[in-house]
Amino acid sequence: xxxxxxxxxxxxxxxxxxxxxxxAGVSLEVNANDLFAIIGPNGxxxxxxxxxxxxxxxxxxxxxxxxxxxxxxxKPHQRAQLRIGRxxxxxxxxxxxxxxxxxxxxxxxHLHSGVLACALYYGKAxxxxxxxxxxxxxxxIDLLELQDIRNKxxxxxxxxxxxxxxxxxxxALDPVVLLLDEPTAGxxxxxxxxxxxxxxxxxxxxxxxAVMIEHxxxxxxxxxNRVAVLDFGQKIAExxxxxxxxxPAVIKAYLGExxxxx
Length: 262
What we know:
Blueprint: E1 8-17, E2 20-30, E3 35-39, H1 46-54, E4 61-66, E5 69-70, H2 76-81, E6 84-86, H3 99-105, H4 115-120, H5 123-141, H6 159-172, E7 177-181, H7 189-206, E8 209-213, H8 217-223, E9 226-231, E10 234-239, H9 241-245, H10 248-255
Parallel strand pairs: 3-8, 3-9, 6-7, 7-8
Antiparallel strand pairs: 1-2, 1-4, 4-5, 9-10
């Protein structure tokens, strides 16, 4: 029987900034329902891959396919319409707005009322906004346990909660593919455990595909089903977590000789 085509495919991606190759021929295949991790040292090209997938960068060479369709030159808003959502390594929230308002922004592609109706907030626009707010409250605020802080100003919240709000905003897109850029970076052990729990829970409930950049090897090995390793813009290994962590090239380039294989 023919193999199932991947949901997200990178074919020989090159990304050059002047004479520097941030990506050098990287190919990846992410299947539906994967929790696919991308790891590697700082400057390896991990976030460059996310920026190419989400349309912030256009690769110098190579192709990006989503469900078999070439989206290499699509604009970021077009990719959002395909329901490719993401979080950012550095929190990118509107700090002066409430939690609920930040999350609602992630829902914008699902709004269909005209500009005038939205400005005057009447008729279809009002009904649509109320319906989307109900969806957000039911499917995202409750899911991520943000009920008690939904009306608080984001900038007043602790770092770990702000990271959770950013995850909520990405979920408001109702993504098919969710790109998680270092979701536990800067968190203490308790916050990390909470974030991991939420990632696994939303993946189960939403049945989405997740691609994760993460430095915490414990998190990567515990929750991902496939791992790709980058070094200097090149893929040096890919496979199941246990397979990758035993790879000599990965140990040398990233994990270090003192890394204990489980």
